[in-house]
C-alpha cells in the first residue's frame, strides 16, 4: 500500500509538471536586448541612475498579479516618466516587436528580487 501511495504521488507530480509549461528566463538575452535598446543608460541592475534600479522595480511589483502586464506596457508604450528632478520625458520604447524577447526581458527584471 505504501509503495502505491508513493508511486501515485510521483505520477501525479509528473502529470502536473506536464500540464503547466515551465519558462526559464534567459538573462543573457534579456541583458542583450536591454543593452541594444540603451536601457542601461537610465537603469542599473542594482544601482539607481536617472531611472530606478531594476531590482527596485522588481521589488515594487512583488505580489502584483498584473506586474508582467504593467511592466510590458511600460517598456513598449512610450508613456511619460517623471524624473527625480521633476522633469518628464517619454520612456523609450523597446525597438523590437518580438513578444517572446519582450516577455523574457520583463520576466528577467521581475526576477531580480
Could you characterize the architecture of this molecule?
This protein has 113 residues and is mostly helical. 52% of the residues lie in helices and 5% in strands. It is built from five helices and two strands, in the order H-H-H-H-E-E-H. Helix 2 (27-36) crosses helix 5 and helix 4 crosses helix 5 (99-110). The longest helix is centred in the first third of the chain and has 18 residues, at 2-19. The relative contact order is 0.16. The model is unreliable at 15-21 (pLDDT under 50).
Question: TL;DR of this structure?
Answer:
The chain is mainly α and 113 residues long.
Main traits of this protein?
single chain; 113 residues; mainly alpha; Cytochrome Bc1 Complex, Chain D, domain 2; two-stranded antiparallel ribbon; 2 strands
Beta-strand content: 5-15%
Q: Number of DSSP strands? A: 2
Q: Can you tell me the CATH architecture?
A: Orthogonal Bundle
Task: List the total number of helices.
Answer: 5
CATH topology: Cytochrome Bc1 Complex, Chain D, domain 2
- The arrangement of helices and strands along the chain is HHHHEEH
The CATH superfamily turns out to be Cytochrome c-like domain
List the helices and strands and how they pair.
Blueprint: H1 2-19, H2 27-36, H3 54-61, H4 67-77, E1 80-82, E2 88-90, H5 99-110
Antiparallel strand pairs: 1-2
Helix pairs in contact: 2-5, 4-5
